[in-house]
Amino acid sequence: MIRHLHIQATFQDSLDHPADQPVRAVDGPDGLGVGKQRINLSRIKQLSQPLTRRIRCRQAPFRSHQSSLRVLCRHRDVHSVKPTAPTIRPHRLHRRSQWKHDRVRRARSTIFIASVATVSSAACRTRRVFRFGLREACHRPDWDMPTGRLVPVQMRKGHGSMVTFGVDAHKRTHTIVAVDDRGIPLGQITVGTTSKDHLGLLRWAARFGAERRWAVEDCRHLSRRLERDLLSAGERIVRVPPKLMAHARDSARTYGKSDPIDALAVARAAQREPDLPVARLDGPDRELRLLVDHRESLVAERTRLICRLRWHLHELDPAWEPKARSLDAQRTLDEVQARLQGQAGVVARLARELANRCAELTAVINALEKEIAQLVEQLAPALLALPGCGPLTAAKIIGETAGVDRFKSRDAYARYNGTAPLPVWSSNKARHRLSRTGNRQLNAALHRIALTQARWHPPAKALMDRRKNSGNSGREAIRILKRRLSDAVFQALVHDQTDALMPAA
After folding, report:
1. What span, in angstroms and rounded, lies between the C-alpha atoms of 111 and 182?
2. What is the pLDDT of residue 118?
3. Angstrom distances, CA of residue 137 to CA of 129, 130, 132, 142, 184
4. How far apart are CA 228 and CA 234, in angstroms?
5. Read out DSSP for 256-325?
6. Nearest to 413 by CA among 464, 485, 463
7. Spatial separation of the C-alpha atoms in residues 465 and 472, rounded to whole Å
8. How far is CA 394 from CA 129, 398, 413, 438, 444, in A?
9. Which residues lie below 8 Å from residue 93, measured CB to CB, with a gap of 6+?
10. CA gap 487, 375 in Å, rounded
11. CA 291-292-297 angle, 5° bins
């Protein structure tokens, strides 16, 4: 296009600048003179050939120029056929100045349009747009890349602020996605679950700056080692409850499920919720919880064995049966072994093995109960002083609470253990109902204390009678008592923690 414009401009210059010597009407083999103007017909012929071809391709924009060329070529043909000097009509000559201004204006417009088109084409070529699938064109996210390798850091607008690392923890691998303060993914990585892999993860995270935090889905059986290594390195970790990601994929703009998508949902949930619990190193409360869980597992195993043993004893002698709930005592197990001593057969042999196994489990369970009682006396003496709260119930409360300082108030603790009623009212009448959420293990421990106090503790009995007289049922009165007990347990735990910190201070 530029080459043709140059040719057209050269042709225009040849028309605008006549010969240096002004002559009158002179006719010759290569020119036609009119007055003081001279037109070089050979020059017109040389310049009109490429321009005429260009005009034939585009008839519409250059129709006026084609008519002018035809006028000039007609004069040349007439001169070549007739040797006499033809006359140029005056109305043809006075249009030449007007044609000059129109031609220059059109040339400038064409150059401007060509430059704009060139710039637009270059901008389109530099734009990185990917089209995939049957959907419309969209920018492919740079964080959606194969896992198992480091992803280069993409410097974006706003980089340098707080960076949140969402962690999707698994048994063999952990997938981490880094997002900025606006939730835009910056990079991702998948690492193993060993301390060496976690050290490489810290080196990768250092690329994003010092202002960072980690958001880990609260699955501590999978993420405990990662949390311990990160806390030892001085990192800040928040725990995101799994319920916050329950419908994250439903409202997301992406489709499907993958570890990077889940990690991104964890990071954005941590940015959306400001008051998430902060992770910390495990203390003696976790050790107490492990002992309680192990004892409960052994008790459940012993219960299954006792059920099988009773069926074998019934098959051997339907007339004799041990008392209910007595096979967990060593004296009753010794009596069973004595009755099975002289009997033969497979059923008697299996019954003897089950009785021996029950005796072993009973010894281990009793030893664990003594150990738990000693730990509870050291950790929570004020909680043990609460009427109706024994060592096992107190140990369950301490282990499930996992640090009372992470609750900002007693109301928050009641919401956590499920004793706070839920509002279910609309319009002008306020109404609440039973909460079936929260930690059900902790709720069961409070329920045992409430049942014990409702039987023999005078203040609890007076409360129950007063609520029943006011129209509440027995279950509703127990719920009110459990809500009061939740506040009492919270105060006892705070007191025990304060006493434990004072000698250290």
Report:
1. 44
2. 60
3. 7, 7, 7, 15, 19
4. 10
5. S--HHHHHHHHHHHHHH-S-PPBP----HHHHHHHHHHHHHHHHHHHHHHHHHHHHHHHHH-TT--PPTT
6. 485
7. 10
8. 62, 6, 16, 18, 12
9. 34
10. 23
11. 100
- Other beta carbons less than 10 A from residue 100's beta carbon: 13
pLDDT at residue 428 in the model: 72
Question: Can you read off the two tokens belonging to residue 53?
Answer: 């071809």
Higher pLDDT, 131 or 346: 346
User: Rounded CA gap, 335 and 332, in Å?
Assistant: 5
Give Cβ neighbours of residue 122 (< 8 Å, ≥ 6 apart): none
φ/ψ of 32, rounded to 5, equals: -135, 120
Per-residue pLDDT of 248-275, as tens digits, reads 777 777 778 889 999 999 999 999 888 8
Cβ proximity of 349 and 341 under 8 Å: no
Q: Which of 48, 131, 49, 33 is nearest to 87 (CA)?
A: 33
Mean pLDDT of the chain: 77
**pLDDT at position 349 over 60:** yes
> What whole-number distance in Å separates Cα of residue 394 and Cα of residue 385?
10
Other CB atoms within 10 Å distance of the CB of residue 395: 27
DSSP state of 254: S
The 10 Å Cβ neighbour count of residue 288 is 23
| 245 pLDDT tier (thresholds 50, 70, 90) | confident
Backbone angles phi, psi at 422, to 5 degrees: -100, 135
Q: What are phi and psi of 151, to 5 degrees?
A: -105, 130
In this structure, what are the phi and psi dihedrals at residue 386, rounded to the nearest 5 degrees? -70, 130
Lowest mean pLDDT among 180-184, 280-284, 372-376, 413-417: 280-284
In this predicted structure, what is the pLDDT of residue 221? 87
Q: What is the dihedral of CA 36, 42, 43, 46, to 10 degrees?
A: 160
- From the list 394, 401, 400, the residue with the least C-alpha distance to 379 is 394
In three-state secondary structure terms, 237 is strand
